[in-house]
Amino acid sequence: MDSNSKNFESAKQIFIAFLENKRLRKTPERYAILEEIYGRTDHFDVDDLYISMKNKKYQVSRATVYNTLDLLVECDLVTRHQFGKNMAQYEKSLGSKQHDHLLCVVCHKVEEFCDPRIQGIQNMVGELLDFEVHHHSLMLYGKCKECRAKEKGETKS
User: Fold this and answer.
1) Domains in the chain: ranges and CATH
2) Where are the alpha helices (DSSP H) in 3-82?
3) With b meaning 16 or more CB within 10 Å and e meaning fewer, what string describes 100-128?
4) pLDDT digits (tens, 9 = 90+) for 51-86
């Protein structure tokens, strides 16, 4: 069993327990949405996920996708990001290492990066302020290499 399958199975067990605890229905559509998300490696928005599900012939409504995403965020299986656009972006969180994001303000491309020094700063600040930090979110905004190259090419003309 590969790590994606293991992560999905673990996520499914967590989701089942969450739904039972909240006394919510355990529907095939909710599990299909979870499986679709845990099969992805990218950030996505609701429309991306909905279209992907429809293209695979799943009978899910847009409302079901929205509601299931809200539940998955609530039980920490999915992370919601607001990368400066009006639309929320999501990514799976179980089995994903802590990482941060670079956002290009020109083309809106999002890149992930991981630097252990940031975790050290988080721990140091938590100790200094006597605050138990559970996780953090860091977004750096700027211009990606491709957009900077295009700008340089346009100014030479």
Assistant:
1) 1-96 (1.10.10.10), 97-157 (3.30.1490.190)
2) 3-22, 28-38, 46-55, 62-74
3) ebbbbeeeeebeeeeeeeeeeebeeeeee
4) 999 999 998 999 999 999 999 999 989 988 887 667
Cβ–Cβ < 8 Å for 75, 14: yes
Burial of 77 (0-12, 13-18, 19+ CB in 10 A): buried
Closest CA to 41 of 83, 88, 71, 3: 3
76: left (phi over 0), alpha (psi -120 to 50) or beta: left
The tokens describing 90, both together, are: 């999501």
pLDDT digits (tens, 9 = 90+) for 20-43: 999 999 999 999 999 999 998 888
